[in-house]
Amino acid sequence: MYKIYLLLFLGLMIHWQPATAQSADEKINRALYNRIEYLFNSQQADSIYNLASKSFQGQISREQLTTMLQQLYALGNIKNAEQLKFERGVASYRLDFDTERLLFVLGVDSTNHYHTILFQQYKEDPKAAVAKETADADTSAPVEAMDPFDFKIENIAKNYTQKANARSLTIGIIHRGKVQKYFFGETAKGNKTLPTEDNIYEIGSITKTFTATLLADLVERQVISLDDSIIKFLPDSLARNTALHKITFRNLANHTSGLPRLPDNWNSGSGYVAADPYAHYDRKALFAYLRHAKLDHEPETEYAYSNLGYGLLGELIAIISKKPFDACLKETLTQPLHMRATDLKVDPKNTNVLKVYEGGQEVPVWHFQAMAGGGAIKSTIDDLLRYAITQLATPENAIQRAMAATKLFTFYIPENNMDIGLAWHTDLQEDMNLFWHNGGTAGSSSYMAIIPDERSAVIVLSNSNEPLDSTAIAIVREVIKKK
């Protein structure tokens, strides 16, 4: 049992009354609570402290708040919050974590900052519990209407999961500080089991946005320049191929390098297995190809999507950093962002790793070596929401600045009327910039969109190769329309 967590109560004499119709003050309280929940779940203690009133900050230091919140992080994410009471700007909420419930009290002043914040163990009122059980058992009780937005998302999702070859669908939405998660379908063929936030999906080419962020971080730290030739960091044996000399890091990251989609030796060699096509392809094979590689066009003249380019970019990041690509990923991104379930490889004994399906039949999860920078990451919806939250943040630290740099336009693609930054493709939805990337393996599909103007993001994950771009775009449009 967790101990009581108490911050500041400022001697308020509160006479609780049951909440009735929401007043303006109550709505303000709930809005501030939503922001705190969002920041708590993304472990942004500093930002929570910045929401406090001056009187609160005069009595509680940033370090004291951070220490308390770090203890609470052990409970996991807030899964649900139910308002219990409201009086004179102070509300109480029941917070549901994975295995624990807490009572949370929040007092808000006239400037919409909190002056009171309280966490303590939640004790069910016996009378209220009996009343709830009675109401649950009463089949004549009116059914609460579904929120219109939830109803639309459910309809969009079911249109996908009802397809013959579809399996599960997990959706994460951030909209103006509120995080919502939805789970549909079944995790394995015929098991009738919904996915959860713990399930691990292949995200395929969304990996490229992570690789681009690692590149932007090297630029941010002035280790390299985007316009450096890649030949400076490749072995001397490759310098004889003059075609490589004109390729810059920018060209690799925005698909204008002239390199083809895949190397011509990717599906050859004694270790090649068609069901797991990149598991054998190592740096030796990549460099063997590059010694004779020819470009399809001059660098920076055309956009041509290249998995090869991102595989090479991942290897270059590892060479420059003098550590494996997965170590770069962990040290720069996944560990600082508390993305504990995100990795290039997965433990086959981990039951949270979903089986994946191609055309309705189970196929292997893919493994990578030299092509890891183009599509190797496996992750959960909670981890990807943390990633998206950081993508939306105002750039204040190194990671946020690197992420912002990946969304700066670097090339216009006239045939698609679309721009590209570093990995992120950009077009307009409802006159708003939409930064997006999709992903696919033999048995998985994924999509992520960042909508800065709406402080919103959409993540859609499936453990089948049934295309989901149209499903994801339909969800994006509903999020943009949401008030």
Topology:
Elements: E1 6-8, H1 24-41, H2 45-50, H3 54-59, H4 62-72, E2 80-87, E3 90-96, E4 101-108, E5 114-121, H5 126-137, H6 148-161, E6 169-175, E7 178-184, E8 201-202, H7 207-220, H8 249-253, H9 283-290, H10 307-321, H11 325-334, E9 356-358, E10 361-363, H12 372-375, E11 378-379, H13 381-392, H14 398-406, E12 411-413, E13 418-420, E14 425-429, E15 432-440, E16 445-451, E17 456-462, H15 469-481
Antiparallel strand pairs: 1-5, 2-3, 3-4, 4-5, 6-7, 6-17, 8-11, 9-10, 12-13, 13-14, 14-15, 15-16, 16-17
Protein architecture, described:
It is a single chain. α6 packs antiparallel against α15, α7 (207-220) packs across α10 (307-321) and α7 packs across α14 (398-406). 33% of the residues lie in helices and 19% in strands. Mean pLDDT is 89; it is low at 1-20 and 127-144. The two termini are 40 Å apart. The protein folds into 2 domains: 6-137, Nuclear Transport Factor 2, Chain: A, CATH 3.10.450; 201-481, Beta-lactamase. It is α+β, with helices and mostly antiparallel strands. It has helices at 24-41, 45-50, 54-59, 62-72, 126-137, 148-161, 207-220, 249-253, 283-290, 307-321, 325-334, 372-375, 381-392, 398-406, 469-481; strands at residues 6-8, 80-87, 90-96, 101-108, 114-121, 169-175, 178-184, 201-202, 356-358, 361-363, 378-379, 411-413, 418-420, 425-429, 432-440, 445-451, 456-462. The strands form 4 sheets. Strands 7-6-17-16-15-14-13-12 form an 8-stranded antiparallel sheet, with helices on both faces.
